[in-house]
Amino acid sequence: MSTDKKRDLFDKCESFKRHKVAQEHGVYPFFRPLDDSEGSRVMIENKPRIMLGSNNYLGLTHHPEVIAAAKEALDRFGTGCTGSRMLNGTLNLHNELEEELATFLGKEAVLLWSTGFMSNSGSVGSLCTRKDIIFADREDHASLIDGFVLSQARLVRFKHNDMADLERKLEMNKDHAGGKLLAVDGVYSMTGELAPVDQIVALGRKYGCRILVDEAHAIGTIGPQGRGSVAHFGMTDHVDLVTGTFSKTFASMGGFIGCPQEVKEYLMHNSRQFMYTASFTPSIAATVLTALRIMRTQPELVEQCRSNALWMRSELERMGFNCLASNTAVVPIVIGSVAQMLWFNKRIYEEGVFANPVLPPAVPTNACLVRTSYMATHNRADLQEALDIFEKVGHEIGVIGPNKELMADHWKMMASSVGI
Ligand SMILES: Cc1ncc(COP(=O)(O)O)c(C=O)c1O
């Protein structure tokens, strides 16, 4: 009889301890509940903090017209749709939103999804099959990656934003007999870098690919009237599929794909992620529709968000921080090792700034970063306060200043002694 202990499904949970080490050292940064929020300022653990970790780019979560529209929809239709779009879950509001968003994006049609994650995984997962091939940037969002896996298509990943590598891979596969998809993020969520959509389009066209751009972080932050990276590069007529989310600029949740009408009809009748889930709630539909109208009529909000981010980036760089090549509303601050980044993040939080730590595998182990993101509704006094905190803590933790090299060694020793 074998003495080997049989493996149980939950063994991995019992041995998963990484988060506990960070908790024991008081540097665990996740799942902090907000007690209150005014958008750009939040209350956490009884202390007001400047919110630099939200994707509420235009600050519309607290816009009075948006809130009024959401309340009205709640009163009129109730709290939920309680069914799939196919059956009882379609409201006039969903159809109106699809039409207005299609016009805004310059696409023939739009299909709504219950989340942005599902719009990527569901559309790629049902449009591509095992006969097809997908070319994808190495830093594409997880929701696209899940779509690639679902589709069972052949996946070819190219180095991040590296057009020479992309072309090499397209050339190697130029005789592939099935369909070809080239999929990228318009703005990369952790670094705020733009994809070179014009070059992506040129290469995609040359090698017969359909092109998909995920505009989750681009709508509302870049392009004329915040129409996104595709519009920014003047490529609206050359990108086949544009996906996105309502969980950022649109101040709510849900997702969409902009596409030809026949693609929309195919997805409506073939995508499991679309058909077998409830549609988003009436108040979400009204929120998003109103946010879209505000974005169209108040383009100064997009400009405000952009100028806040650009100002922060230039001030941070002036202090000596490395903000990579970001030129959008997301401004990363490169810190260093995991330990150094966690302590930096803990200290800015204690001083009154909420930002997002980014850990491997999203970034290389020695280049962990703190992701900051900006809103149209941040005022310069709040941002100046945040800058003062970054400068103070940056010196203290050795991210900037004369002791940088010395402190890097200190953090390496610290990391190996505490096991982070
Ligand atoms: C680039 C990108 N695509 C898609 C999504 C998914 O959006 P949602 O929050 O609506 O699921 C996100 C959200 O994190 C994202 O950053």
Topology:
Elements: H1 11-15, H2 18-24, E1 36-37, E2 41-44, E3 47-51, H3 64-77, H4 92-105, E4 109-113, H5 116-127, E5 133-137, H6 142-151, E6 154-158, H7 163-172, E7 180-185, H8 197-206, E8 210-214, H9 229-232, E9 241-245, E10 255-259, H10 261-270, H11 272-275, H12 282-297, H13 300-319, E11 330-336, H14 338-351, E12 353-354, E13 356-358, E14 368-373, H15 380-397, H16 404-418
Parallel strand pairs: 3-12, 5-6, 5-7, 7-8, 8-9
Antiparallel strand pairs: 1-2, 2-3, 4-10, 9-10, 11-14, 13-14
Helix pairs in contact: 3-12, 4-12, 5-6, 5-10, 7-8, 13-15, 14-15
Name the features.
420 residues; alpha/beta; Aspartate Aminotransferase, domain 1; Aspartate Aminotransferase, domain 2; 4-stranded mixed sheet; 14 strands; globular; binds pyridoxal-5'-phosphate
